[in-house]
Amino acid sequence: MSMIQVQQLTFSYPSSFDPIFEDVSFQIDTDWKLGFIGRNGRGKTTFFNLLLGKFEYSGKISSAVEFNYFPYPVQDKSKNTHEVLEEICPQAEDWEFLREIAYLEVEAEAMYRPFDTLSNGEQTKVLLAALFLNEGQFLLIDEPTNHLDTEARKLVSSYLKKKKGFILISHDRNFLDGCVDHILSINKANIEVQSGNYSSWKLNFDRQQEHEEATNERLQKDIGRLKQASKQSAGWSNRVEASKNGTTNSGSKLDIGFVGHKAAKMMKRSKNLETRQQKAIEEKSKLLKNVEKMDSLQLTQVEPKTKELLQLTDVSIMYDGQTVNEPISFKVEQGDRIVLDGKNGSGKSSILKLILGDDIQYTGTLHAGSNLIISYVQQDTSHLKGDLADFIEEHQLDETLFKSVLRKMDFDRIQFEKDISHYSGGQKKKLLIAKSLCEKAHLYIWDEPLNFIDVYSRMQIEELIQTFQPTMIFVEHDQTFQEKIATKRVNI
Description:
It is a single chain. The chain is of the alpha/beta class. It has 14 helices and 18 strands. The strands form four sheets. Strands 5-6-7-3-8-9 form a six-stranded mixed sheet, with helices on both faces. Helix 7 (about 200-240) packs antiparallel against helix 8 (about 255-285) and helix 11 crosses helix 12 (about 425-435). The protein is globular.
């Protein structure tokens, strides 16, 4: 056991005046299974790069362990898998590789196939297995779930639970709950380390917010009452002070000593009230700095002319004459929210593209209603680049509405000036979701919309869909999202 200590860390990118980290200090145990959470763009991957020594910074990071990063960059993917793994962990024996991948339910024959013939999920599993065989290294795991189906996520989460010594960036709540014992959270105002899984962290975070809300409300009332009392006290003091040289109503002379004593007493009370008021204001200013504002999103859908929008009967996707999936049948009616679930490579995305009208070989029948308007969120974001203004013009979006949605999803205004290619993975995905929310459609087709999306935005999107109940077909492996949103499930 050893500690990773971060002391007075300050860092900003050369092209930005806003610091990503400012005078940050905390420490973590190298035996911990640490979940790393925070809004998109808050600096999670940046912190990994600082640990890896990629950027200069002020402050100090001290550690007795070496750091390794997932996803590991495989330079030559045409090599056999066992060659790739031997480069990652040269001291491991073949039987150790086989043991680790067996835990992850990867067949032994995958070791002797070219790495690029493995599915994305298989690549994720074998790379994690090899990296954990490196003794004395602390693993920095960046979004491992993006290429994993629902069952694979459960499997990898169980695998990680048996390991120790890693920081895991993930926004999948179920996945985190299954494998971490501490949470490192980048909040709006600070960075905190807390024992427990995601659910226990969220419970504590919400309780803290509720306590601060109640304290804030009490202080607000106290400040108002103190202001009024201070104003009255000052008024009384002034009136007494003004009467020092006067007489009583009966014409007798006032006791100047008594009046002076009373004026001083009233002035002292007024000063005490002002001091208490200022103290309450200062106490109030320390509250609610970490509130994650989640404004409600809006959706304008088009009412379809018929209840039934779409029907698939005995549809199988085919590639190079080979059938990818067993025949599936389902229909989409107004208000349905259908999740397509199945293993990686089972044809889920291909079925979505078939519905969209792509030229995909298939058997069976597909019938779509006439003039069906579809809004689509695609899985891939690598094509996104250029100015935001050009993106808005290309897709004929209402600029004010579009930017308003992005702001509600925690986009700073400075992001509007950047080239889209410089956005984080989560910010690119939010761009596509915001576009879809601004499009009036009969049917919304979303293909893994939550990849890279932070937890708070996931909850915003869940609330939106539950409120407006749009007709949807979606692929998403976040189990919590599936359970909250889907009205029907189609297993492929």
